[in-house]
Amino acid sequence: MQERKIYGRREGAVGHVVFNNPAKLNAVSLDMWDGFVGLLKDYEKDPAIRCVVVSGAGGKAFVSGADISKFESERANAEAQVRYDLISKQGYEALYDLPKPTIAKITGYCIGGGMNLAACCDMRFCGEGARFGIPAARLGLGYGFLRIERLSRIIGLPRAMEFLFTARQYSAKEAYEMGLVNAVAPDAELDALVAKTTDAIAQNAPLTIALAKAAAREIAKPESQQDHKKLEVLAKGCFDSEDYKEGRTAFMEKRKPVFKGR
Question: What's the whole-model pTM score?
Answer without folding.
Answer: 0.91
